[in-house]
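Model: Ready when you are.
Researcher: Fold this.
Model:
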Amino acid sequence: MRIALAGLAALAVAMGIGRFAFTPILPMMQQDVGLSVAGGGWLAAANYLGYLAGALWAGATRATAATAIRAGLVVISVTTLGMAFASGFGTWAALRLLAGVASAWVMIHTSAFCLESLAALGRPILAGVVFAGVGIGIISAGSLCVLLMAVHAQSASAWLVLGGVTIAVTALLWPMFRVAVGAPGPARASGRWTWEQARLVLAYGAYGLGYIIPATFLPVMAREAVSDAALFGWAWPAFGAAAVLSALGVTLVAGRYSNRAVWIASHLVMALGVAAPVFWPGIGGIVLAALCVGGTFVVITMVGLQEARSVATAHANANAARLMAAMTAAFAAGQIVGPLCVSLMLGTGAGFAAALLSASAVLVAGALLLVRR
């Protein structure tokens, strides 16, 4: 349980703050520094570009898990605090890019460290606790921002508070990840790519593109639907709560349904949630989107990587590490394309509706790719 809770806390910092703290803070930055939605899309893309670079870097290095996790947490602390004191779009973009690199390191190495350790101890079912950290981080960061908006605090204050939280958690976790225990080094690529492997990569990339639009702009859309911060600010914590419950709940149905079936169903539920604000304008559609997308994106991460192991095992020439690395890269690439598409569509006057419907269609296509003949 100590290992699972340490993993939960590390992922809460890496994803809730390093990756997604910008989402609930974006409406605050719009108000007090005049950041546009299109500008927010470019800053989000910088973070996701860093995540892609970090994922590729993590897959190519043989650093121990302890070293990588500690270094990543320190960088997230520094870049989060830096956002409180920085001014100018270029500096913001550089800080968000570095935070993305560090988040990828913590995400990948924490997963490897915890899953390997839990399997060795005969408690792999606690993996659900580890991945619940993503939702815990989102809830915590979102709730803090709601409280700060309620007292009319500036966006710099939000970055400062979250940076302080990150430093505290990093200090608490420092002795938990021992240098003596390391994740296995990256395996060399081997064998030929099969269509079965390729469509897992494509479907995982579709997932990255499909979920990232609401994951980035949900509070902004909620702010357009209702002006009361006490209402629109809770859209992001609701997203995180759904992620926590789904990560824990999926362990209860483990074994009843195949990973592939859960993945396909999650894609379709997410597609419904992404399109919901278009057909149900107002706060009702926003809440449905938060629940559908938040309730599936951690599940897809878990079952997608488990399916990668199964496919690699079934093919003699396949390499599980290689396949997972390719899926992670496709996921990160989808996250880069998504916010850029929103920025371009908003620039042409298309609005959020076109972006949401496009993302929903991509998710449905990803589900169809996963269907076996």
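Researcher: Now this one.
Model:
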Amino acid sequence: MSAPVLQATEIELHFGGLQVLRGIDFQVKEDEIVAVIGPNGAGKTSFMNCINGFYRPQGGRIVFKGKDITRLPPHKIAGCGISRTFQNIELYTGLSTLDNLMVARHIHLKRGAFWNFIYFGPSRREEVRHREVVEDIIDLLELESIRKNIVGQLPYGQRKRVELGRALATEPELLLLDEPMTGMNVEEKEDMARFILDIAELKKIPMILVEHDMEVVTDISTRVVVLDFGRKIAEGVPDEVKKNPDVIRAYLGAEEEKA
């Protein structure tokens, strides 16, 4: 049985007198897509923020591939191999799709300004390597038709896909997807679900997925963790979690009770 890629233990987070996370235990293994669900205000995004260093929990420990990352700043955590997409799209809207993906490669730059200035030898070889990674992502996410388009002029669904591509361009060893399908129509959701499954299968990248659409969660996740008021109230495979009475009361509500 493989060790977890990420292990969070007894995570506590509060802002003043507001308790946001209460003793959360959580893990992700190498071959998993773990969905985190729960009603609005349950602490899902706050938990993601703890993992990638935007928030520092007041209690508990987060270990990624054997390294304690609990107190590391976001850029250090990114350097360890954790990448993320956001609820609200965070792209360089004045740049093209290709440029947005290339910008994400800065984390792997090894040559200094001198080599970049003369663009010769090692610097050129490094540029070729970055281009190869980006071109692979463009093929995988079917971005060829919009590679030169300015991102700010793209439809919403395509921008979400570019953001996923930018996260992949860092070559992560763990991918955090914070509501990647919010605001999408049915066809766009189906495409995004397919891309997420392709990433898992072809690139073998474990993922944590925050998502409200239970149909999507059931279709693509390996395991589901349910939060409510900052507590973990259930965990298991999707079909089991959907039948859990605590989950039905807290999250699925009346729709499930009528079924």
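Researcher: Key takeaway?
Model: Residues 1-81+172-259 form a domain with the Rossmann fold fold (CATH 3.40.50.300).
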